[in-house]
Amino acid sequence: MAWIYLILAAALEACWMFSLKYLSFTKFKELSLENFIKTEGLTIWLPLAGYIIFGVTNTFLLSVAMKNIPTAVAFTIWTAISIVFIKGVEVVYFHDKISIFEIGFLLLIIIGIVGLKFVSKT
Length: 122
Prior knowledge:
This protein has about 120 residues and is mostly helical. The chain is built from 4 helices and no strands.
């Protein structure tokens, strides 16, 4: 179960990173009761809500996973899976280009994750 928590934490870390990307504190002065639930208001406060929710949940799930997985292994795998998720979202959702070298290095990361999973004492 700890590995599932770790993967969920990594997915939420990726969500947290994208909410951070769209978070803009300078736009909060444009927020009013009239536009709070309209599109322009949602683009202002929704990234902050995501930042808080994804950040807290991500940290909680990582801490739960680390109760049964060694800290160094959990942190390494959490970081690596987060990177793979982030790059996947950038390619699929944002239509970023990906080179053959990036694919190769992402595969090396995935191989490292699988290797750590099998040699870890959990």
